[in-house]
Amino acid sequence: MDFLRPTTWADALAAKAEQPDALPIAGGTDVMVEINFDLHRPPALLDLNPIKELATYDTAEAPVLSRGDDPPHPPVKSGWLRIGASVPYTRLINELGDALPGLAQASRTVGSPQIRNRGSVGGNLGAASPAGDSHPPLLAGNAVIEVESAARGVRMIPATEFYLGVKRNALEPDELIRAFWTAPATGAQYFSKIGTRNAMVIAVCSFAIALHPEERRVGTGVGSAAPTPRRATAAEEFLSNELDWDGRTPFSVSAAQRFGELVKEAASPIDDVRGTADYRKHALSVMARRTLTWAWNDYRANKIAGREAS
Amino acid sequence: MRVNLTVNGAKETVDDVWEGESLLYMLRERMGLPGSKNACEQGECGSCTVYLDGVPACSCLVAAGQVEGREVVTVEGLAKGSSGVDEQLDPVQEAFVEAGAVQCGFCTPGLIVQSHDLIERVPDPSDAEIREALAGNLCRCTGYEKILDAVRLAASRKAEAAAR
What we know:
The structure holds 2 protein chains of 2 kinds. Chain A is α+β, with helices and mostly antiparallel strands.
């Protein structure tokens, strides 16, 4: 096995181009489990820890998607966050919890404090497990993934197009994940997850909701209930039209039930050791109604995820 | 491969490290530091917790090569002085002994490091904060009550010492 330690991003891209089967390692919380148990013996490890910029974030203009035909959501031009792939969950929680409450809530449910000190969204994206906790809020919040190769430069991929299959993502063999882009929350965001205890839990299933009041739109993300994390688009459309964005009146019980049903229909889960398909579907409809209630109550109180809107 | 790092304040060079091996393996099998325990090797149990650049991490999930040029503190590095001569245990270690928070002792090193970090960050932690901080450290025989007692005792001792 080789151990590659590039110290700059350019060197990392060059190393990945030269050795496309090198496995990137940042926090190691997925990669080392596979090596320790001899489930996977990559020809080389590509250590991303020395590349300090991957553990930083800054504000940026709205990203331009590579296919260039779609305006970003939300349609704001500036004030986006560009967050390095290796920023650990602990820092997302402590430093970006106000800007990205849905992602911060999901981050709090990742593993344990020690895991959150090392694990990162970049790792979640690289592993592309359908159960990864960061995926649902990334989908609900319209995140865009920045990937790059030495040969072809940067590609900006919407989260909705990033997940291709179980543990398969849109990365080419010579590409690395550099950052993810997302606009700070303009409305309430919530994340909910089913597991056996409050720590060290791989999601049985999970759900994220984000209100985008400026677009009068609801974003959703469904985790661990299909081959990939996915949006519940029919549920989003139904609810976006159903909610009284101006009057801020309560939604009807039947609307919440219909939303839950549509979220459930968006899932195609399997029976496995963590839960049955039927249980996952039922749990998703419950989480959908619950998170909707929390989010809409905040919106009605003019709060962004429990915080007074300025 | 060769790995250069600082462990418990001393600069060390380790040779013949396998590229896929963990920091935990390197510490225990190549550096004579068996304090960090090897139990689950998948980050579930916290028994191998060490400080990496001042941040607690499961050393079983850090590749040895990733610590090149970095600073590691293990449970062996928390006491002052040298073993058997003028050793002065850290207040967290003393509290675990006094509170009876050690039975078989296998989970203890990880709990000590994680509790040490908690009290550094949160000098007067609530029970909820202690439980949250220790959520990734499994104990299968002592029982968590005495461990919670130990953390409370250590926090109050450290607060007393700081007030003096």
